[in-house]
């Protein structure tokens, strides 16, 4: 029996309680690598006021009139280059991380995964956990660096979902882990091993984080500081003679000024100034996705080699690697303490 049904008086509604749930959350991704599917996904994602901080009355005509008519085709082509038999890499890896965590944490907790945009939705998975008897739920946004556009919007959506409930579960939110020794250790171990196995010795290692509008830093979002701290701590651990480490920001969107230096411009500038062997890591992404597998690994290679670079490698994200999963287990056990 998954919940308490005994000793209830006749006619009493079923009582589902006593279990603990853990919901790992990532951004979301299209259901298919087609323009209509990407359009549905981008319409939801780019309508979020945490992501595009422009009043809806000004932004929605631009989104519906221009962006959703132009970008889905281009983005679908990028997704098609990295699509797998299990679907979008981000979806497949996030699900595999939840399955692995379930094995590590055992029966004391029910682990599931959800996406902020698209499927499986937070609404669907919170309902599923409650149905399974969870009256305590920990929400774990898999973003090491806090950002209003990623972390805060998960909190907002969960709050909206709970606002409709009569019996709300107790909630915990797993904090950002940008400087957590377990995270830095996992990255240092995993990236160190990947660097050792390269066929060349990079002169430069780029630590490429997802970009954000510069304005969000000026307004007090800690994202830039979190990225810089991760880069500093990680850099201290993976430094090796002859390898310079640089921090850059990728995936610029729109016309506003974004955090700099930009990854794409840096790839070209490095090649122009004579760097021949370069590797890129993306420590801010918990899972490989279109931004790492296409933008860095495919487009980035073209940018670097066409500008004169020779050897180029993109290192994998932590994904379901042993160091990555051990790190997630450590953080989740700590954040669930007292509950399991
Ligand atoms: C890791 C943190 C991320 C931050 C910060 C972030 C901010 C941010 N992103 C966009 C626009 C797009 N991002 C897209 C994809 C995407 N972004 C992240 C993560 C962060 N985004 C991930 C993990 C992914 C990959 C999703 C996947 O399906 O693989 C896209 C879609 C792809 C494309 O069309 O290029 C857009 C658009 C903005 C505007 C923003 C902050 C303001
Ligand atoms: Fe993004
Ligand atoms: Fe800062």
The CATH class label of the domain at 181-314 is Alpha Beta
Amino-to-carboxy terminus distance = 19 Å
Structural class: alpha/beta
What compounds sit in this structure? the ligand C=CC1=C(C)c2cc3[nH]c(cc4nc(cc5[nH]c(cc1n2)c(C)c5CCC(=O)O)C(CCC(=O)O)=C4C)c(C)c3C=C, fe (ii) ion
Overall outline: globular
Enzyme class: lyase
GO biological process, one term: heme biosynthetic process
Organism: Altererythrobacter epoxidivorans
GO molecular function: ferrochelatase activity; metal ion binding
Task: Describe, in short, the structure shown.
This protein is an alpha/beta fold and 340 residues long.
Annotation keywords:
340 residues; alpha/beta; Rossmann fold; 4-stranded parallel beta sheet; globular; binds the ligand C=CC1=C(C)c2cc3[nH]c(cc4nc(cc5[nH]c(cc1n2)c(C)c5CCC(=O)O)C(CCC(=O)O)=C4C)c(C)c3C=C
Q: What does it look like?
A:
- Helix content is 46%, strand content 14%.
- The strands form 2 sheets. It has a 4-stranded parallel sheet, sandwiched between helices. It has a 4-stranded parallel sheet with strand order 6-5-7-8, with helices on both faces.
- The chain has a domain at 181-314: Rossmann fold.
- Strand 3 (134-141), helix 5 and strand 4 form a beta-alpha-beta unit.
- The longest helix is centred in the N-terminal third of the chain and has 27 residues, at 56-82.
- The chain contains 11 helices and 8 strands.
- The mean pLDDT is 97.
- The chain is globular and about 80 Å long.
- With 340 residues, it is an alpha/beta fold.
- It starts with 18 loop residues before the first strand and ends in a 5-residue tail after the last helix.
- The protein binds the ligand C=CC1=C(C)c2cc3[nH]c(cc4nc(cc5[nH]c(cc1n2)c(C)c5CCC(=O)O)C(CCC(=O)O)=C4C)c(C)c3C=C and fe (ii) ion (2 copies).
- The site of one fe (ii) ion has 3 residues, from helix 8.
């Amino acid at each position: 029996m998954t919940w308490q049904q005994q000793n209830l008086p006749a006619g009493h509604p079923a009582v589902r309680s006593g279990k603990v749930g853990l919901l790992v959350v990532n951004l979301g991704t299209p259901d298919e690598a087609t323009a209509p599917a990407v359009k549905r996904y981008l319409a939801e994602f780019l309508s979020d006021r945490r992501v595009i901080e422009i009043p809806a009355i000004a932004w929605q005509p631009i989104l519906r009139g221009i962006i959703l008519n132009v970008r889905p085709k281009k983005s679908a082509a990028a997704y098609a280059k990295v699509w797998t038999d299990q679907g979008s890499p981000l979806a497949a890896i996030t699900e595999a991380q939840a399955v692995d965590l379930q094995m590590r944490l055992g029966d004391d907790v029910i682990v599931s995964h959800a996406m902020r945009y698209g499927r499986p939705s937070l609404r669907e998975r919170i309902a599923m956990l409650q149905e399974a008897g969870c009256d305590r739920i920990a929400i774990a946004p898999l973003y090491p660096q806090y950002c209003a556009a990623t972390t805060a919007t998960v909190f907002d959506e969960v709050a909206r979902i709970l606002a409709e409930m009569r019996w709300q579960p107790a909630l915990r939110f797993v904090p950002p882990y940008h400087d957590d020794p377990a995270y830095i250790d996992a990255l240092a171990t995993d990236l160190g091993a990947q660097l050792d196995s390269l066929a060349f010795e990079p002169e430069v290692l780029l630590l490429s984080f997802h970009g954000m509008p510069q304005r969000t830093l000026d307004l007090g979002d800690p994202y830039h500081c979190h990225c810089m701290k991760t880069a500093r701590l990680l850099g201290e651990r993976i430094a090796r003679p002859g390898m310079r480490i640089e921090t850059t920001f990728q995936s610029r969107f729109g016309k506003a000024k974004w955090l700099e230096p930009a990854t794409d411009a840096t790839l070209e500038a490095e090649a122009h100034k004579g760097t021949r062997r370069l590797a890129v890591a993306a420590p801010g992404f918990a899972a490989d996705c279109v931004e790492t597998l296409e933008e860095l690994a495919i487009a980035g290679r073209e940018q670097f080699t066409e500008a004169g670079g020779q050897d180029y490698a993109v290192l994998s994200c932590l994904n379901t690697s042993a160091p990555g999963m051990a790190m997630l287990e450590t953080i989740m056990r700590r954040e669930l303490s007292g509950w399991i």
